[in-house]
Design a protein that fits this description.
alpha/beta, 15% strand, globular, binds nicotinamide-adenine-dinucleotide
């Protein structure tokens, strides 16, 4: 079935940055597929907001760290709406621990979701975008993938890996008019920060030149731009959205 609207697939779209990205891309005229482990909360107005904009929204329950689940979700979406124009990889976790105490599970969980998950999703949509000779992929990395962070060998390695993956995929898809970029946020107010200690938060805020934590819209608007035609000559780029936390 052919869908005249652009279709955006947003992983991790049930919460935080991904939920905001889903709403902003709907504002930009896209129908939205949210791929996540869990549906958004009933109280979360994101899905209603997307529908109130007159756009379609569908939920694909899948674990990005399982390649078969990603492939099935992408096949389901293509059979339903016939196209995928945009992929935004937002799904992510962290399991902080200093390396001498980090167990195999903490290492693997983060690499599996934050790096392999991006690989599986990019691999699944690449043939679709290559055939369409058009598309935009945005991968959410982190400034900690650029600078490292105490207690985050797993997360920093995964997020640095996302940058290498992004630059390579930009080279591989450029001839088919598909752009691939990464956004590297600093500290952004989302549920992922719930377990952060007050001391760690204050230390992080002290690093931020603009003197505040980021809002999801700060990241979402950059993603919206990179997915738009206004960014058609930008590919292989990593853009920090961090209020000057890392310069
Ligand atoms: P969040 O916890 O609010 O949202 C993450 C979403 O990913 C959730 O809906 C969760 O269910 C989903 N998810 C987790 N594991 C998944 C899996 N295996 N399969 C499918 N979905 C899964 O977090 P957030 O802060 O919005 O983070 C979004 C992205 O931004 C992450 O990649 C994170 O690493 C990155 N990031 C966040 C910050 C920050 O300060 N919040 C900073 C830098 C980078």
């Amino acid at each position: 079935m052919d869908n005249p609207s652009r279709v955006a697939l947003v992983t991790g779209g049930s919460s935080g940055i991904g939920s905001c990205v889903a709403q902003l891309l709907a504002r930009d005229g896209c129908d939205i597929a949210v791929l996540d482990l869990k549906r958004p909360n009933e109280s979360d107005s994101a899905l209603y907001h997307i529908q109130s904009l007159g756009k379609q929204v569908c939920f694909l329950e899948a674990n990005v760290s399982k390649s078969e689940e990603v492939n099935t979700a992408v096949e389901t979406l293509v059979s339903r709406w016939g196209r995928i124009d945009i992929l935004v990889n937002c799904a992510g976790i962290f399991r902080d621990q200093v390396i001498w105490k980090m167990n195999d599970e903490q290492w693997r969980d983060v690499i599996d979701v934050d790096l392999s998950g991006v690989f599986y999703c990019c691999r699944a949509v690449s043939p679709i975008m290559r055939a369409a000779k058009k598309g935009a992929i945005v991968n959410i990395s982190s400034i900690n993938g650029m600078r490292g962070k105490f207690g985050q060998t797993n997360y920093a390695a995964a997020k640095a890996g996302v940058i290498g993956l992004t630059k390579t995929l930009a080279r591989e898809l450029a001839r088919r008019n598909v752009t691939v970029n990464a956004v590297a946020p600093g500290l952004i107010e989302t549920p992922i920060l719930q377990n952060m200690s007050e001391t760690a938060r204050l230390d992080a805020v002290a690093e931020i030149l603009l003197g505040r934590t980021g809002q999801v819209e700060d990241v979402g608007e950059m993603v919206s731009f990179l997915c738009s035609d206004r960014a058609r000559f930008i590919t292989g780029e990593v853009i920090r959205v961090d209020g000057g936390q890392y310069i």
